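Sample intake sheet
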Amino acid sequence: MSGGLYSYNADFSAAIDGYPKGVIVASSDGSKIWWNGVEDNNTDPDSTSVSGWKNLLADPNGLFLQKANNLSDINNKATARNNLGLGEIATQDFIPDATLIEKGITQLTDKTGNSNTLAATQKLVSDVNDNANNKLAKNQNGADVFNKTEFVKNIGLSEMVELAKGAVPNSRKINGKPLTGDISLNAGDVGSYAKSESDNTWRIRLISAIFQKGGQLL
């Protein structure tokens, strides 16, 4: 039998003086369905000299995707990816490394450093924060020391602190003289005689004592 979805048969076509209009046959490999548009058609639809036959599986208006094209004939690939929820990265053969301005793949690290291509793990961030919390802030000038007494002891300043406690503040004065440097005290500062006054007084008293005893000054 020929016609229907049977393939084209040259002997049958000759016997009936060509396929009538409206006949449908399959291609020899089964990939096409041919529809005859003319009367008494003796041409083979699978040949290069085909005439009057139309492939019903053809898509001259581009309404369907061809399996052999592996989706390369999609009109708008970006829209198709969005419709499928794939995004851009899902269809890339190569994903670049991430940078400060471009998204991509990045490697994790648990060590500190100066790389702009490695991403810190949560543990590294936590360790850095803990380390920072245990440091003294430079701009606090020691105000953030937790135990100042132990701090002074650890740097060997305990003895100096004790000496400082017994020191006289330099804001005080002695006999009106400020304690900003070395002080020289004279006899008047301590309520005593000057050396010259002391020498003269001693001589006068000695002479007086000698004369009172009837002696004479040699």
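Comment: The beta strands are 24-26, 33-36, 53-55, 107-109, 118-120, 173-174, 177-178. Residues 10-55 form one domain.
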